[in-house]
Amino acid sequence: MPPGSGHTAPLRWTTVFSGTMTEVLVCQGLLESNGVPAHILDHNLKVIDPFITGSDAFNVHLQVTEDRAAEAREILDYRPPPGGEAVPRDPAAERVRQLSLRIRWASIVSLTAPFALWLALPYFAAVRDLGYRPPEHGWTIAALVYSAVLIVVVVTRFAL
Fold first, then answer.
1. CATH architecture of the domain formed by 13-77
2. What string of DSSP letters covers 69-110?
3. Is 133 a residue whose pLDDT tops 60?
4. How much is the pTM?
C-alpha cells in the first residue's frame, strides 16, 4: 500500500522457537526483555487442553513478527544453557532432543507406543551421528523398553 494511505499492512507472525511450555515462556521473557515482542501460538488452548491441537500436544510455538525474526533467532541462539556459558545451539543436538521428547511422550500415552518404537531407529542414528549421548538418553532408552514390553503384553494378552 502506498505510504500515507492510512492503511497499514497486517503483521505477519513466524515461529522462531518450539519446545515445552516452560522453555517457550522463558524464551518469550528473554525476547521481550530485549525489546522483541513475542507471543505464544494457541497459548490458551495449550494450557486448557493441549491434546486438542493434535499429536504434538506438548510442543508449543513462540512467534514474533517477520521483520524481527532474524533478531529473535540471534538472541535465542546464544541463550546460555542452565549453569553454563552462552554457546550457539547445535542443530544435530536439537534434532536428537526433539526425537527423544517424541519417544518419551509416545511411550507414556501407551496407545502410541508403536510410534515410539518406530522412532527408535532414527533416534539411535542421530545419537550416533552426534557422537555423544545426550543428557536424557537413559530416560529415552527406558521409554523404548517400556513401549516394547507394553506391546508384547498387549499382543500376548489378546492373541491368546
1. 2-Layer Sandwich (3.30)
2. HHHHHHHHHTPPPTTS---PPPHHHHHHHHHHHHHHHHHHHS
3. yes
4. 0.51
